[in-house]
Amino acid sequence: MLINVISIFPKMFDIIKDYGITKRAIQKHLVKINVLNPRKFTKNKYKNIDDRPYGGGPGMIMTAEPLFLAINQAKSLSSNPVKVFYLSPQGKKLDQSKIMELSHQKHIILLCGRYEGIDERLLISKIIDEEISIGDYVLSGGELPAMVLIDSICRVTPGVLKNSKAIQEDSFYNGLLDYPHYTRPKCFNCIKIPNILLSGNHSEIKRWRLKQSLTKTWLKRPDLLNKLILTKEQESILHECQSKMD
Ligand SMILES: O=C(N[C@H]1CCCN(c2cc(-c3ccncc3)n[nH]2)C1)c1cc2ccccc2[nH]1
Hints:
- The protein has helices at residues 14-18, 20-27, 64-75, 96-103, 121-124, 143-156, 165-169, 202-220, 222-226, 232-245, and strands spanning 2-6, 32-36, 50-51, 61-62, 83-93, 107-112, 130-133, 187-188, 191-192.
- The protein has 246 residues and is an alpha/beta fold.
- The chain has two domains: 2-164, SPOUT methyltransferase, trefoil knot domain (Alpha/beta knot, 3-Layer(aba) Sandwich), CATH 3.40.1280.10; 187-243, tRNA(m1g37)methyltransferase, domain 2 (Trp Operon Repressor, Chain A, Orthogonal Bundle), CATH 1.10.1270.20.
- The strands form three sheets. Strands 2-1-6-5-7 form a five-stranded parallel sheet. A two-stranded antiparallel ribbon has the order 3-4.
- Strand 5, helix 4 (96-103) and strand 6 (107-112) form a beta-alpha-beta unit.
- Helix 4 crosses helix 6 (143-156) and helix 8 (202-220) crosses helix 10 (232-245).
- The mean pLDDT is 94.
- The structure holds ligand 9WO.
- The ligand O=C(N[C@H]1CCCN(c2cc(-c3ccncc3)n[nH]2)C1)c1cc2ccccc2[nH]1 binds at residues 58-59, 87-89, 91, 113-114, 116-117, 133-135, 138-139, 141-142, 145.
């Protein structure tokens, strides 16, 4: 998968190129990350990529042409069909299903805004296909959201994680919140490990973990439960938990 990023701070992406699972995805040639700096596509000697907003107002707006030229250059880097995603607070909220959808693409382009945003004509003229938000807050730019998205795509890319079962068991992969995790020592702060986890009974451990995920999701994020079609087993476990709480 080729991920082209358009950003005036390309070195920010060294973080994901040099560490962790994203580094492993790149080393395994499962993901290629290529960052283009719009400044390289400016036609003025000062390499300006922003200007004052028409109609007045605070700050600066990223001008359309350098971004348009950078997007076109990115599109030319592969013969595959490609969509352009703008990371913005106005975007559709990113979720695991979107990550799965993106992970099946051969090539995507991520546009990272800065300042107070980009010239609206990039959206009006459909140069940008979709806007994606990682949450309801305003950051200084789209780079960190882009890295969040890339990290999550790498996690679900086959061959990247050593234990591919980890993907299936990733809480959001099945739509539920994660179950609690414990490791050595057996006692910390006078808190012991749940006995079931020391039983060696893997089917019971699996059921206990599912029960924990369902209970935690019901209590903390009932909205996620409403989106799911629970299996018979999940339904019965959840009812068991709910009746105990009543
Ligand atoms: O929205 C603004 N800046 C954005 C423009 C697009 C890139 N930036 C950004 C992306 C995101 C983002 C992206 C994806 N998911 C969550 C947040 N937060 N901030 C910075 C903004 C900054 C600003 C300052 C004064 C008055 C209005 C203002 N609006």
